[in-house]
Amino acid sequence: MSTNSDLVALARKHLYPNYKPAPLAFVRGRGCELFDADGGRWLDLSAGIAVCSVGHAHPVLARAIADQAATLMHVSNYFYNEPNIHLAAELCRRTGFDRAFFCNSGTEANEALLKLARHHFFGMGQPDRVRVVAFEGGFHGRTLGALSMTGTAKYREGFGPLGPVTHVPYGDGDAVERAVGRDVCAIIVEAIQGEGGVTPAPPGFLARLRAIADACGALLVVDEVQTGIGRLGRFLALDGTGVRPDAVALAKGLGGGFPIGAMLVTERVAGALPAGTHGSTFGGNPLACSAALAVLRILDEENLVEGAAAKGEVLHALLQQLVREMPELCESTRGEGLLRGLVLRPGLVARDVLTRVLEAGLLLTAAGERVLRFAPPLVVSTSELEEGVRALARVLSELRLPPARTYPAASRSA
Ligand code: PLP
């Protein structure tokens, strides 16, 4: 059996160095627990960045994948396949959208939104509608199209020229009004900016975007890659808002760890990408779709969406208590359901704190500069949430001991 240090040494020699992982190799998981190659146990309240919605190694998901792999793993999109059709129907039933396109990641789902928007207007004889209005702090992925919509300059730096996108402050409807024009094909938005700092949209913002998009004739598309599939205590962040965008992007929690993304659209834009204009070899194959169908079944059978709302309140209360107890370190907490952020005081760097959080046996992620993000598997128990927040409280209280201490630069990235 390889140890952590064997594996890390080999990784450092052969893996492309675009990540800066912690010197740990996980070999096994169960629910919210992960185990490394040396047998160490870790509490995972990050779910692989909001992905492992039903926890690690859920037996129903594992069985569904194994059964499908032993039955039919892949066929091309020149043919129909049964899990693909059932998944499309099931997602439409749950969301009220009319059609689904499947791909393999959140980035690809957003890339599809962009191509949908441009080609919709191309097909309507308006080929000059190519610009997108997106938001500062928004994250939509790393391929060139998705990256052009991503609103953090440091991610875009060095990769230009990128597509025409105007980034405006998140939550600022007036700025959106000023930014739109007859050349805009879409406004893209997250209901809560995940990577940007677990920042919720202000009340009424999404409805205002719908009205602005309608007034200028553009599409409204919503990136639910991080917020969707029950994480906020409802299936989509949009549910209950009364806002109906033209399309949404899903990924992360949809496959519970198996790679799959989806674009769901209304009938209005169903003709925008006719046969031959977009596609994916792997997208929507039977294995990925069976995994996603199993995730949806587990969400229902274990009441995980309602549970996310209730457990989210528990997590909120625990984090509020931290803010009350350590106001010199913690500014506030925000988010919804099981997507929550603890906002640290200016001067603290979330990635630096994460290094110590990891040493305490806990996995969280950073969101933006100053936010520690909790995005646990939806199967998390109240006692696991308590254990995690207790561990974080210990780390924070150690940080505050020497009054004017500065913290070492992060040795890993989340
Ligand atoms: N959109 C949002 C809101 C995300 O949070 C992410 C990833 O963090 C993406 C898109 C990109 O998804 P992926 O990494 O699966 O391509």
Short overview:
The chain is of the alpha/beta class and about 425 residues long. It has helices at about 5-15, 45-50, 60-70, 80-95, 105-125, 145-150, 155, 175-180, 205-215, 285-300, 305-325, 350-360, 380-400; strands at about 25-30, 35, 40-45, 100-105, 130-135, 165-170, 185-190, 190-195, 200, 220-225, 245-250, 260-265, 330-335, 340-345, 360-365, 365, 370-375. The radius of gyration is 21 Å and the shape is globular.
Provide the descriptors you would attach to this structure in a database record.
414 residues; alpha/beta; Aspartate Aminotransferase, domain 1; Aspartate Aminotransferase, domain 2; seven-stranded mixed sheet; four-stranded mixed sheet; globular; binds pyridoxal-5'-phosphate
Give an overview of the whole structure.
The chain is an alpha/beta fold and 414 residues long. It has two domains: 148 residues, Aspartate Aminotransferase, domain 1, CATH 3.90.1150; 242 residues, Aspartate Aminotransferase, domain 2 (3-Layer(aba) Sandwich). The protein contains 13 helices and 17 strands. Strands 4-12-11-10-7-5-6 form a seven-stranded mixed β-sheet, with helices on both faces. A four-stranded mixed β-sheet has the order 1-2-3-15. A four-stranded antiparallel β-sheet has the order 13-14-17-16, with helices on one face. Strand 1 and strand 2 form a beta hairpin. The C terminus is likely disordered. The structure holds pyridoxal-5'-phosphate. Pyridoxal-5'-phosphate binds next to helix 5.
